[in-house]
Amino acid sequence: MKLDDLKQNFEQQIQSSSSEAKLTLQVDELKAKTKKYQRDIKVRDFMEISISLLLIPVWLYGLSISVNWMQSLGCVLATLTSLYIPYKLLKARRLTPTKNDSLRAYLHQEQQRLAQQKQLLETIVWWYIAPVFVSVMLITLGANMDDEGVIRLESHMQVYYLLVLLGMVGIYFWNKRAAEKRFGPLLARVEQQLNELNGE
């Protein structure tokens, strides 16, 4: 009987070490993939933050030469948006610190990072595109306002606003799809590996 128990324990140890080796291999593959997307995110963030910060003097200059309250409001909103975009991008890269160096801790951090980036891309219309559009719209509407405060908008400007609005709707749906396509499979893989780890 004791010989059978030893044999069974030995087989379980072999299966356990085999599944651990398989999981380690999968995690190494995952690390290679996540390294690439993290590099892409750093480049994207650097470019977006640089552009946002470089635009602040432009918006402040526009505020100093604005001819009415609507243009001023557009320039203020554009300045605030240019400050908010870097904050939002950097906040999405911040992770809950962990003192644990285990495989489980790594997977949890990767899950958090992927979920944050996916959510950032899905909501880009609301925190990035819409505020910029509203700012530019206020500035251009202010430029078409006469001395009595009446907006004299020509038909080509109305078409322009409509096209930009339709473009925003298209960008919203495109980004939802892109977020799912880009981050969905990686996130599902991390969650699967976490489940496998928790199931052991």
What does this protein look like?
The chain is mainly alpha-helical and 200 residues long. It has one domain (33-199). 87% of the residues lie in helices and 0% in strands. It has five helices and no strands. Helix 1 (2-65) runs antiparallel to helix 2 (69-93), helix 1 (2-65) runs antiparallel to helix 5 (155-199) and helix 2 packs antiparallel against helix 3 (103-122). The longest helix has 64 residues, at 2-65. The protein is elongated and about 95 Å long. The chain starts with a helix and ends with a helix.
Sum up the overall morphology in one term. elongated
Strand fraction band? Answer: under 5%
pLDDT averaged over residues:
84
How helical, in percent, are the residues?
Answer: over 70%
Tell me the number of structural domains.
1
Spell out the key features of this protein.
single chain; 200 residues; 87% helix; elongated; transmembrane helix; transmembrane; membrane
SSE blueprint:
Blueprint: H1 2-65, H2 69-93, H3 103-122, H4 124-143, H5 155-199
Describe this structure in a few short sentences.
The chain is built from five helices and no strands.
